[in-house]
Write a structure and sequence with these properties.
Layout: H1 2-5, H2 9-17, H3 23-41, E1 44-47, H4 49-64, E2 76-80, H5 107-114, E3 118-123, E4 135-136, E5 140-141, E6 143-144, E7 147-151, H6 157-164, E8 171-175, H7 181-187, E9 190-193, E10 222-227, H8 230-240, E11 267-270, H9 281-296, E12 300-303, H10 311-329, H11 334-342, H12 360-381, E13 386-390, E14 404-406, E15 409-411, E16 416-418, E17 421-423, H13 425-438, E18 443-450, E19 456-462, H14 468-479
Parallel strand pairs: 2-3, 2-8, 11-12, 11-13
Antiparallel strand pairs: 1-3, 4-5, 6-7, 8-10, 9-10, 9-18, 13-19, 14-15, 16-17, 18-19
Helix pairs in contact: 3-4, 6-7, 8-14, 10-12, 10-13
């Protein structure tokens, strides 16, 4: 049963369809594991046990009758506690929404249910999804399965911890500045941040007064799966991608269809550090070893020393768009962003810049700057299949205590330490991730090894916009070179 808990979602789905194990048995296993291990991890925060068992039994009836819904039929999964779920609390880690129960499912939840999955419950988040540690006043702190004294990341920390610990076979999270990629890196699992607009936002962060279908930025935010295999990412993405039928949903984007098998050599660009923004030596060494292994497999690799876009401009553009758009849907963030803008820091770092004055003309100007950055990056990527780079400056760090709250933004006066040297908390964690929210690029986070403390190391695998399927296929080819995924010892 331990081995069953750590199989991929696709493999478990195959076993259920072949009737080698029932959906009810697999769901009971997941519930047992949540009961046993979740108290120490606090990853699953709103449980759905009775409804999950009912759904599993219904899945078994359908499968036995030959009514197959797809590769994940009967597979138990979890969902980040920011997606609307009928009959199940959706709080986004925000105390004012404690006990809020939506009357409809988010688009991604609806699609997964139609595909026959079994919803086990919701996974923990940081308050309003704006920290890269998962801890809130409703449910408390989520711990890393590899070391409970370390962060699981955020804001999809509960999602990554649940999948890594074998409490769930798949989870869906969101990402506006690294919230899928950082937890995947810290917890040693795979994630996909799709091309912006590839997955509908409908039903994400519901419950805020004055918002219709979701309370988030109109740009930058993405929604995608966390899993223990590339195949699971591919399957989940095929289910949740595409325009939403709900009011306010996005139209179908020009997604390039899955590629046919190709033996053409891959072309890989990579960088292990941006000047002035250090990455730990162990992460750099792991990336270099991986690239060397790729080259040994006949893959063309080019190290780049200068980034293809102005990273400082990208960071500032990210902050200005966040400021302009989230203040229109979640104005309680305004004071926190203002604090970050005016706060003096000892390290010369970019900040979450405010758009001052906040006018339509200035808003259009910053969107134009963003479009220029996108074009430059896409031009660079025309020569490559994928760009490899770090996710973050460090592996999972010890739980970091906030100094205070400004609005609903946690403030960390104490720096993080990279190889013994202090670095600004937000830069150390999000600097390498934010770039690809600005470019809107699809990014797969792939685990490639461990540091000396036994903590996972992941990398970002960045692809071309609207070529998510190509990127997933490319990473599948590269993953044959990386270490086989292994579970933590709980």
């Amino acid at each position: 049963m331990h081995e069953l808990a750590y199989l991929s979602a696709v493999k478990v789905g195959a076993l259920i369809r072949e009737r080698k194990v029932s959906a009810e048995e697999i769901t009971r296993l997941a519930i047992q594991r949540i009961s046993k291990f979740n108290p120490q991890l606090n990853a699953v925060v709103a449980k759905n046990e009775e409804a999950a068992l009912h759904a599993a039994k219904e899945a078994d009836k359908e499968i036995n009758a030959g009514q197959l819904r797809g590769p994940l039929h009967g597979v138990p999964i979890t969902i980040k506690d920011s997606f609307s779920t009928i009959g199940l609390a959706t709080t986004s880690g925000f105390p004012a929404l404690q006990g809020f129960v939506p009357d409809r499912d988010a688009a991604v939840v609806s699609r997964l249910k139609q595909a026959g999955v079994v919803l086990l419950g919701k996974t923990n988040v940081s308050p309003l999804l704006i920290d890269i540690q998962t801890d809130n006043d409703i449910y408390g702190r989520t711990n890393n399965p590899w070391n409970q004294e370390r962060t699981a990341g955020g804001s999809s920390g509960g999602s990554a911890a649940s999948v890594a610990a074998g409490l769930s076979y798949l989870d869906i999270g969101s990402d506006i500045g690294g919230s899928l990629r950082l937890p995947a890196h810290y917890c040693g699992v795979f994630s996909l941040k799709p091309t912006e607009g590839a997955v509908p936002p409908t039903g994400h962060m519901p419950g805020f007064e004055g918002t219709a279908d979701y309370a988030s930025s109109r740009h930058l935010a993405c929604y995608g799966p966390l899993a223990r295999s590339i195949e699971d990412l591919q399957t989940a993405f095929s289910i949740i991608a595409g325009g939403s039928g709900f009011a306010g949903g996005l139209p179908n984007g020009p997604q390039v269809p899955p590629p046919t098998e190709s033996a053409a050599p891959l072309r890989v660009a990579w960088l292990d550090e941006l000047s002035g923004y250090p990455v730990s030596h162990e992460i750099q060494e792991a990336l270099r070893r991986f690239v060397t292994q790729l080259a040994g497999q006949g893959i063309h690799v080019d190290q780049i020393t200068a980034p293809p876009i102005d990273v400082r401009t990208a960071w500032e553009t990210w902050g200005k768009i966040i400021d302009a758009e989230q203040n229109s849907t979640t104005p309680i963030l305004q004071r926190g962003l203002a604090y970050l803008t005016t706060r003096k820091v000892s390290q010369k770092v970019p900040t979450a810049s405010m758009l001052v004055p906040l006018t339509f003309k200035n808003y259009m100007r910053v969107l134009t700057v963003r479009e220029q950055l996108i074009r430059r990056f896409e031009l660079f990527m025309s020569d490559y299949d994928v760009l490899l780079c770090p996710v973050s400056s460090t592996t999972a760090f010890p739980h970091h205590q906030k100094t205070k709250m400004v609005g609903y933004l946690p403030i960390y006066e104490e720096p993080l330490y990279i190889d013994g040297k202090p670095q600004n908390y937000w830069v150390a964690t999000t600097y390498y991730a934010n770039l690809f929210n600005v470019t809107g690029s699809p990014v797969v986070t792939m685990p490639i090894g461990f540091d000396k403390a036994g903590l996972p190391i992941g990398i970002q695998c960045v692809g071309k916009r609207w070529r998510d399927h190509d990127l997933l296929s490319t990473v599948a080819r590269m993953s044959q070179t990386s270490q086989e995924w292994k579970p933590p010892t709980l």
